[in-house]
Amino acid sequence: MSSLIEPLFFDTDCLSAFLWVNGQSILAKLYPARIIIPAEVYAEISNPTIQHLKDKVDTMISCGDVRIESIVVDTNEYRLYRKLTTTPEWGHKIIGRGEAAAIALAKEQGGIIASNNLKDIAIYVEEYNLKHKTTGVILREALEASLITEADGNQLWAAMLKKRRKLGFDTFTEYLQLTRPG
After folding, report:
1. CB 131: neighbour CB atoms within 10 A?
2. Residue 141 pLDDT class (50, 70, 90 cuts)
3. Looking at residue 88, what DSSP letter applies?
4. Cβ distance 117 to 111 under 8 Å?
5. Residues 74-106: pLDDT tens digits?
6. What are the backbone dihedrals phi and psi of residue 79, each rounded to the nearest 5 degrees, phi first?
7. Tell me, what's the pLDDT at 118?
8. What is the pLDDT of residue 5?
9. Beta bridge partners of 69
10. Residue predicted with more confidence, 148 or 165
11. Residues 17, 46: contact at Cβ < 8 Å?
């Protein structure tokens, strides 16, 4: 499947990085009709203490920018999801429901996982040969598509850091200078 049409399965931390800073329109423009939020991620975002994030997702759903996808019991996705959240293989750690759902759906449907949580998921991304995007990769793609400027990227990055998003670099400019598109 071409990376131009592959679905993107967002976990909570990557999606919320954009929601916290009102950057959801970047996602909608960059990945039209390709954004999938696992039901487990939607449940995490539906926490009443962050109702404004759920409201933004609901708006994206009503505009057709996003769809919610549930994992059906007794499917390969479900078996992998349960394994990742309850009984991983030796040497692997249990991961959160949102991350596990995004991984299971991406693996079984040939999609891309969007997650910043490299520490927890890197072993699974490698093991299942998954394509993976972080917030930095997404912002770089938005820059390359002329949806944002580097200055816009730095403002978004700073706002994300202020909301305690872990991005691995102090600025978007630093990210651009120290990483190469992969």
Report:
1. 16
2. very high
3. P
4. no
5. 999 999 999 999 999 888 889 999 999 999 999
6. -60, -40
7. 83
8. 84
9. 38
10. 148
11. no
Is the pTM of the predicted complex or chain greater than 0.90? Answer: yes
Structure tokens of 102? 């995004």
Token code pair at residue 19:
């929601």
Q: How far apart are CA 34 and CA 169, in angstroms?
A: 27
DSSP 18-84: HHHTT-HHHHHHHSTTTEEEEHHHHHHHT-GGGHHHHHHHHHHHHTTSEEEEPPPTTSHHHHHHHHH
Tokens of 35: 């954004």
Of 115, 107, 181, 110, the C-alpha closest to 142 is 181
For residue 133, the surrounding DSSP H or E stretch is: strand 131-133
Whole-angstrom distance, CA of residue 26 vs CA of residue 14: 13
Smallest CA-to-CA distance from 138 within 29, 39, 59 is with 29
Quote the distance between the C-alpha of residue 15 and its chain's center.
5
Smallest CA-to-CA distance from 153 within 117, 179, 182, 131 is with: 179
Q: Hey, what are 74's tokens?
A: 């007794």
Identify the bridge partners of residue 67 per DSSP, sorted by sequence position: 36
DSSP state for residue 132 in the 8-state scheme: E
